[in-house]
Design goal:
By secondary structure, the protein is α/β, with parallel strands linked by helices. It is 36% helix and 16% strand. Strands 17-16-15-20-23-22-24-21 form an 8-stranded mixed beta sheet, with helices on both faces. The chain has a 6-stranded parallel beta sheet with strand order 2-1-3-4-5-6, with helices on both faces. It has a 6-stranded parallel beta sheet with strand order 11-8-7-12-13-14, with helices on both faces. The longest helix is centred in the middle third of the chain and has 23 residues.
């Protein structure tokens, strides 16, 4: 296999997200094969956590400066790293409903682009969501959960039927037609079953004479066992059939050179035609078993014809479905694809659209200073005037540190000193000014700029953040304000979704709106803003957001640290609500973005919070752990609401 020739500016390195590094999952098999394919092409594939931190180099994060792109294989988390990101469209639509449709679907659209596996319904799902969005294009590249290339020549092995999976019936997930088929085949002596011996503390294949053993998710062991058996039984779930999606078992089996017995999944018939043998999965189990057994007998009686079918399937497979060719196409076409996305996002008017970005540091902090400089230096928008806004009360040493850090910035950064505090002769008695007073002063200094923004000390932004907002404002002359979605971060807690519900009716410490997500057109700021802004604090930007002239954007390009809320809501909160009612009541209308719509209570416009949770004793909890149905329900709840939400429920249950 010849090495891939990469384009100028590419690193020859890409990353793949491993969501559950401590658990062995089917994704491990896919990742192992991506790494093998990368090696064959002279590329490097690195594994990263959901936040972009490398598994092999803790503390090192991928970015647009060290990888060409990141591949995300799952819908449970959004894009959480500052690099070009693909998400694989490998799952049936039903899975999104089982895991929480709106949350998981919205996670897909936080990525920059999509990787199709030739499922019309999966591609249409994401295309519907982005049809009116200027930051995305419909899926173009393909990536299949496949193999780097064919691994074995066509062969019929021991003429046995290979099957791999989990007996879901054993753990109370309901009875499937596949299970009835496997039970009947178990008595024929033709079947070899592989899969986990123990799952959720249950021996899931207990009682099956055909069960052999568990196969490690190493990317190669499965292929060897399929080749040894010689005939692969490839059965799809109803969800996969409805979506026209195949599991990786079809690709593995063809790569192993085996003869395939497949059900009526439309993907198989459309792409592989008469190179596979088929059964009708709609028939009763005993008739399906009869079809399978007859196919096996035919292969034994006609080995040359069976081998010719396997060879034809492998020929089709190598033309379109191997990972080596998928990755070649992505690398070759990526520069043009990025230009096409930028062309859709961009506006000629944005080239001269000046943005003044105020990065606030009311209290000196090395961490805040470095984070702000990192955000500033990363921006790919050229017509940007960054300003570091600090308090006049900095010490000499602090001023020296600021000057040294700013001198290292790749961009010129203006240093602006203002009063964040009401001064007092007793230094400890100084109190913070309302943030609105600071904003009023900054507005006056932005008179010559087209647009301005504020980045709070607890916020950091992706490299395309200003670009996304500036192009959106330039595209829509009638918009006075645009906003991105945000990622709310609390230490190392898992993140399963994004934040885009904007509700200025109250201050929500668990879901703050933030500041840096907004970009305002300076010419639309009311002339009389001074009669209201100086009296505002945590909800200051409500006076500028408005309603009908406000446009939300799909990318989630800003992080807000929940462990460092800014500003602290104070005694002015009630006053702020009244000022908003009087000055710009439209700002109190909830803006829900593209994600879950807020559930309103009958009494007010606040977002409804989680219901009360019954307290549970340790003894009760231990008894629940022995209840398979209860354990299964917890997995379903995690799928629907995310792990973080479920952990909050547990904490409340134990009074933690």
């Amino acid at each position: 296999m010849s090495a891939l020739e990469i384009s100028e500016g590419q690193f020859g390195v890409f990353a793949v997200v491993k969501l559950w590094p401590k658990i062995k999952t089917a994704e491990d098999e896919c990742i192992a094969r991506l790494k093998a394919s990368a090696q064959q092409l002279g590329l490097e594939c690195v594994e990263v956590h959901a936040n972009g931190e490398r598994l092999d180099r803790p503390g090192v994060f991928v970015s647009r400066n060290n990888v060409d792109f990141v591949i995300h294989l799952h819908y449970d988390t959004p894009k959480l790293y500052d690099a070009f990101s693909f998400v694989a469209l490998w799952n049936p639509l039903q899975f999104y409903h089982e895991w929480g449709y709106t949350r998981t679907s919205r996670n897909l659209t936080t990525h920059d682009d999509f990787l199709s596996c030739s499922s019309q319904s999966a591609d249409d799902h994401v295309t519907r969501m982005i049809r009116n969005d200027s930051n995305h294009l419909a899926p173009h590249f393909a990536l299949y959960h496949s193999m780097p290339d064919a691994a074995h020549p066509p062969g019929l092995g021991d003429f046995k039927l290979f099957y791999a999976g989990i007996n879901w019936e054993a753990i109370g997930r309901g009875k499937s037609r596949h299970q009835d088929v496997l039970k009947q085949l178990d008595d024929t002596g033709l079947l070899r079953i592989y899969g986990p011996e123990i799952f959720q503390e249950v021996r899931v294949w207990e009682g099956y004479k055909s069960y052999v053993r568990e196969i490690p998710f190493d990317g190669v062991s499965m292929i060897g066992e399929i080749a040894s058996a010689g005939i692969a039984l490839v059965l799809s779930s109803q969800a996969h059939k409805d979506a026209g999606l195949m599991s990786n078992r079809l690709f593995e089996s063809i790569a192993a050179g085996a003869l395939i017995i497949c059900d009526e999944n439309p993907f198989a018939k459309k792409n592989f035609g008469d190179s596979l043998l088929y059964i009708d999965g709609r028939l009763p189990a005993e008739k399906m078993v009869a079809q399978i057994v007859n196919h096996q007998k035919w292969a034994v009686a006609n080995p040359e014809r069976a081998l010719a079918m396997a060879a034809k399937a492998q020929e089709i497979f190598r033309e379109k479905f191997i990972l080596n060719e998928n990755l070649r196409a992505i690398y070759k076409g990526l520069p043009a694809r990025k230009k096409a996305i930028a062309a859709k996002q961009g506006s000629a008017a944005a080239d001269g659209f000046g943005v003044r970005a105020n990065f606030l540091m009311p209290v000196y902090s090395d961490e805040v200073l470095e984070n702000h400089c990192k955000s500033i230096d990363s921006q790919d928008y050229h017509n940007l005037s960054p300003v570091l806004v600090v308090d006049r009360g900095l010490t000499v040493a602090q001023r020296r540190n600021v000057a040294q850090i700013l001198a290292k910035c790749a961009r010129h950064v203006e240093l602006l000193e203002i009063d964040f505090y009401n001064t007092s002769e007793i230094k400890s008695a100084s109190t913070p000014k309302p943030l609105g007073e600071v904003i009023q002063e900054l507005l006056a200094l932005a008179a010559r700029d087209d647009a301005f923004m504020l980045v709070a000390p607890n916020e950091s932004i992706f490299s395309n953040h200003v670009s996304v907002l500036a192009h959106a404002l330039a595209r829509d002359p009638g918009a006075k304000c645009v906003a991105s979605a945000a990622v709310l971060q609390r230490g190392d807690a898992p993140i399963h979704g994004i934040h885009e519900v904007l509700d200025y009716g109250h201050v929500d410490r668990e879901g703050p709106i933030g500041f840096g997500r907004f970009l305002f057109r300076k010419s639309t700021v009311p002339q009389d803003i001074g009669i209201a802004m100086p009296y505002m604090n945590a909800r200051s930007l409500a006076l500028l957001v408005g309603n009908d002239e406000f446009v939300q954007q799909m990318p989630a390009t800003i992080f807000i640290d929940l462990n460092a809320i800014y500003p602290e809501p104070g005694r002015t909160d009630v006053l702020e609500g009244k000022i908003i009612e009087e000055y710009c009541p439209d700002s109190l209308r909830i803006k829900a973005g593209f994600g879950p719509k807020p559930v309103l209570t009958a009494a007010c416009h606040h977002v409804k919070h989680e219901p009360a949770v019954a307290r549970v004793s340790v003894g009760q909890f231990l008894r629940l752990l022995r209840d398979r149905r209860w354990v299964g329900q917890q997995f379903r709840e995690i799928r629907v609401h995310g792990l973080g939400a479920r952990l909050r429920i547990f904490r409340k249950a134990f009074g933690l």
